[in-house]
Amino acid sequence: MHLPPFPPFTAETARQKARLAEDAWNSRDPQRVSLAYTPDCRWRNRAEFIQGREEIVAFLPRKWEREQDYRLIKEVWAFAGDRMAVRFAYEWHDSGGQWFRSYGNENWEFGEDGLMRRRIASINDLAIREEDRKFHWPSGRRPDDHPSLSELGL
């Protein structure tokens, strides 16, 4: 399997790769998300260590059961060769209705086939009031005209 764009990345292909990842995560389809990674990929997500697509597919439903009405925006911070640094923010609420904005950074490493072989994510959660939410699009892909993280001042 191959998943363009391929490294080494340019500013444009890095932006495309980050948007494709954002779109997959916003689909909340664990299988779709997993296909962007090598079969033996390695993740660190908060304090959880995940290896391979099967563990990704098992992890994501647990995540989205806790993080309800999940909406995510990713933005490239830096890139070189087969690596990218991406910052992100997502909004969600828990089962009690408390809203959060989660902020984080990811380090990504890709194979020549364009699949991600390593993902290291650091994430912090901030409780917010519902009226302070900034991500209001319907569930799924963020509309092309929706502001980016930088445009939102995040």
List the SSEs and their pairings.
Blueprint: H1 11-27, H2 30-34, E1 37-45, E2 48-51, H3 53-66, E3 68-80, E4 83-93, E5 99-110, E6 116-128, H4 149-152
Parallel strand pairs: 1-6
Antiparallel strand pairs: 1-2, 3-4, 4-5, 5-6
Shape estimate: globular
- Sheet-strand content, in percent, reads 35-45%
Helix share of residues? 25-40%
Main sheet record: 6 strands, mixed
Number of helices: 4
Radius of gyration: 15 Å
What's the helix-strand series?
Answer: HHEEHEEEEH
Report the structural category. alpha+beta
Mean pLDDT across residues: 97
Strand order of the largest sheet: 2-1-6-5-4-3
Low-confidence stretches: none
In the CATH hierarchy, the architecture is Roll
**Separation, N- and C-terminal Cα atoms:** 35 Å
CATH topology, what is it called? Nuclear Transport Factor 2, Chain: A
Name of the top-level CATH class: Alpha Beta
Tally of separate domains: 1
Give the strand tally: 6
